Write the structure tokens for this entry.
Amino acid sequence: MSHPDPYVGEPRGWDRPERPVALPWPEPEIEAGQWSRRPPGPELYAEPRTRPYAEPVPADRDALTRHDGPQRYDEPGRYDEPGRYDGPEPFGGPGRLDDDTDYPTAQIAPIGAELGPDLDPVTEPDPVPPAGRRPKGRRRASVDRPATQQLGTGRAGRNLPAAIGVGLGLGALIVVPLVIYPLAFLPVLAGAVAIGMWEMARAVRRSGAHPPLVPLIAGGVLTVGLAWFAGPDALSLGLLVTVLGTMIWRLGDGPAGFQRDLTAATLIAVYVPFLGGFAALLAAAPDDGPLRILATLVAVVLSDTGGYAAGVSFGKHPMAPSISPKKSWEGFAGSVSAAALGSALLLWLMLDVAPWWGAVFGVAVSCAAVLGDLAESMIKRDLGVKDMSNLLPGHGGLMDRLDSILFAVPTAYLLLAIFVPVVG
């Protein structure tokens, strides 16, 4: 129920007569100004911050623009009228605004009281930690103790000694089976494909996709095996079986996100086992299969090494700053030059190919390797990751080493099929 309007029956506006207005409260004898906690006495704040309580609107309109100064609280007619509230003060007695014994929060101990009566948390310094082992964290450098220098990292942002050691180990893992027993290279290739698919499936989960890992790895290993024993047609068949098996497996998880997961699974199946199957085609060629795969891998290594050396020494013009800021046109020129010179010599010595055709082979493989590196950099940038994993110290993940090879082996397979036709 709304309160009655105190101005009913009276004119509204500036001509309303000046008189006290009864407030619609349960105790009408208590005036609005008498609810104030401020005790009688001089003003607590100096001008001009003093703000008087509201006064009745004068009937004279000119008085609104005329400033006569604030009315003091001790003037008659404001706070000493008859009917003033003379009961007990609601906040601890007259003139005792600083008495907080009636407040429940006054019984709470102030912050820092648990430190002891002799320690003021505001004025005293922080307690000195006990001597002993320094807690975890970065050591603060000073004049006597300069900042610790990170050794072994170059302009490429990698741990160079660790990268060289891991690279030599991977090279030995590839070369030794090819030289001693070529069929032993197939398990190495299948294991590399399986690890690469695991890293890719792990990385794409950051985008919300969840491709089924079991049918992908099983189909990838099957694809590489079919390419080794049955040739290019079996490689395409293995890709088809992998995609269909992944789709059927994924149907068991329901329709939610099916298209997204299947798209990611198809990308992984094409990117890793299908392109990697061309390495199996190269290595399984009769008579000179190990020499073909070795020539391709050496061309990729020369391309990466020449690009790194030229980029660190002369790199000034970015090649694709939005994808890979560290790649430069000078580095690309170094990659192509190193791969062309090295391939011209290697193909002439190993496969009896004319040096100019070997140079063409090196240029094509180098361009494909650079494109593969840029393609994976674009995928990683889209997923928001720096490396596919931290499996290899100084290199990141295995896919960070396979990115160039996966684009280079199909190019090498096609060119060597022209330059050195397979017999048998």
